[in-house]
């Protein structure tokens, strides 16, 4: 019997195929999704998309069978990026399901679920109820519906590209040459549509859709997966490089020298652009983004709001504050004009606009948003997460000029540095991020905290 609890995480469904996630689970999830979201009493349909993984079409079809078994209809948009699915959910005002395991290795697959208009389905807003119904269906067998719904195929790729162009117009920028590494993921599907015309010349890397990832994992957060992009940018003399993850909802950027531009710097740059369009607006940033982000927001007349990590948290806070934009250090970027959903492609268009509207190279253009030195996220395996965090807090709390908060894990701040330690929800890990005014201070604080994490094996991402 499948351990349903093991594959239903805080924000989506994810597991090894077919050992954990198979067509029976997908079918049960489709039926449960309709019941929990009361689709039959509301919109009457669910929009479904899927990525390039070999298992995705069959899982999506099984999910659609589960939906239609209840009498609800399915709008099948076919191959899609996750942000294309969010676009479909927003444009059609329907709840949605995207079949993808994002940046994870080929053996995984998953389902990202959303309510109508791309609103999140989190652990406390429906996902646990869906998991309970799936577990019941797998044990007792699925309920039989009295009427079958219909599946309708709808191609929304061009409409998705047009909507992005409406939000960021590149027609007036100088010509740019950009290397794009799609990592054999869905960027190979969406990038050609978005950049079919205009002043940006794309040099493609690994645009062939292949969920076995024959070249490298589609996880640009890991530096080793940026090596090919960096080399191609230097070889071709391109103005910029972009790397998308497997489902193309995140975008990472390297400058003309092949050096990575921090997602915090991208957050700051996009925030400044959004504030120019919407003066005085609220901008969200999660608590592990650079301190430069709230500084930049305040300097440009905006209202910075600090949030917990995670897309459900960001989307909820965006709705509460009517924020125009939100950024995470993991390279998730959220836009009010995109139904508060995250889209790496829209962030990429902002980056290209910011670069192409002036004549400086990317390394100079985005340097103003890089003010501090960061450690990157360090994953530390520990025997007891809570006890380790408590020991760290005991060491620092009450120190001269030190403040502590628990918005998400433990954050300790001083004048020239800060660090955050958060427990993973799914693994026995602590995630450490450190930032300081200079490298020597960052390394000192980093090493002090790591020394307190006893028995840790450290892996930098």
Explain what this protein looks like in three dimensions.
The chain is an alpha/beta fold. Helices cover 36% and strands 22% of the residues. It has 15 helices and 23 strands. The protein has helices at residues 4-7, 23-36, 56-68, 82-92, 123-140, 157-167, 187-194, 227-236, 263-277, 292-299, 311-321, 344-356, 362-365, 385-396, 439-452, and strands at 13-16, 45-50, 73-79, 96-99, 108-114, 151-153, 176-181, 200-205, 240-244, 251-254, 260-261, 282-286, 303-307, 325-327, 333-335, 341-342, 373-374, 378-381, 403-405, 410-413, 417-423, 429-436, 458-460. Strands 17, 18, 19, 20, 21, 22 and 23 form a seven-stranded antiparallel β-sheet that branches. Strand 14 and strand 15 form a beta hairpin. The protein is globular and about 65 Å long. It starts with a helix and ends with a strand. The relative contact order is 0.10. Residues 456-461 have low confidence and may be disordered.
């Amino acid at each position: 019997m499948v351990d349903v609890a093991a594959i239903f995480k805080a924000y989506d469904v994810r597991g090894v195929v077919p050992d954990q996630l198979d067509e029976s689970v997908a079918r049960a999830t489709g039926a449960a999704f309709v019941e929990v979201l009361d689709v039959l009493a509301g919109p009457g349909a669910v929009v479904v998309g899927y990525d390039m993984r070999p298992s995705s079409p069959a899982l999506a079809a099984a999910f659609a069978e589960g939906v239609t078994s209840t009498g609800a209809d399915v709008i099948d948009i076919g191959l899609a990026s996750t942000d294309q699915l969010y676009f479909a959910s927003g444009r059609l005002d329907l709840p949605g399901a995207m079949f993808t395991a994002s940046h994870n290795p080929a053996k995984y697959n998953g389902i990202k679920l959303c309510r109508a208009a791309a609103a999140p389905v989190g652990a406390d807003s429906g996902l646990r109820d869906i998991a309970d119904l799936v577990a019941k269906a797998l044990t007792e067998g699925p309920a039989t519906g009295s009427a079958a719904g219909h599946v309708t195929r709808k191609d929304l790729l061009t409409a998705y590209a047009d909507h992005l162009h409406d939000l960021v117009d590149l027609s007036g920028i100088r010509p740019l040459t950009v290397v794009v590494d799609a990592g054999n993921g869905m960027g190979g599907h969406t990038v050609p549509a978005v950049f079919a015309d205009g002043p940006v010349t794309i040099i493609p890397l690994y645009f062939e859709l292949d969920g076995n990832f024959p070249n490298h994992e589609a996880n640009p957060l890991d530096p080793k997966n940026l090596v090919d992009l960096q080399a191609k940018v230097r070889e071709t003399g391109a103005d910029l490089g972009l790397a998308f993850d497997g489902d193309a909802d995140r975008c990472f950027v390297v400058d003309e020298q092949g050096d990575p531009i921090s997602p915090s710097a991208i957050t700051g740059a996009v925030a400044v652009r959004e504030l120019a369009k919407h003066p005085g607006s609220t901008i969200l940033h999660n608590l592990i983004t650079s301190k430069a982000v709230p500084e930049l927001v305040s300097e440009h007349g905006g209202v910075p709001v600090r949030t917990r990590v995670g897309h459900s948290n960001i989307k909820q806070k965006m709705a509460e504050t009517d924020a125009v934009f939100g950024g995470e250090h993991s390279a998730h970027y959220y836009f009010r004009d995109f139904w508060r959903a995250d889209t790496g492609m829209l962030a990429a268009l902002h980056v290209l606009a910011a670069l192409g509207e002036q004549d400086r190279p990317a390394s100079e253009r985005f340097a103003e948003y890089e003010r501090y030195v960061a450690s990157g996220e360090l994953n530390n395996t520990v025997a007891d997460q809570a006890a380790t965090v408590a020991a760290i807090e005991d060491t620092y709390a009450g120190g001269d000029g030190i403040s502590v908060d628990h918005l998400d894990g433990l954050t300790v701040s001083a004048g020239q540095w800060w660090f955050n330690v958060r427990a993973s929800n799914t693994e026995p890990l602590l995630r450490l991020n450190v930032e300081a005014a200079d490298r020597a201070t960052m390394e000192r604080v980093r090493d002090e905290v790591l020394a307190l994490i006893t028995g840790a094996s450290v892996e930098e991402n």
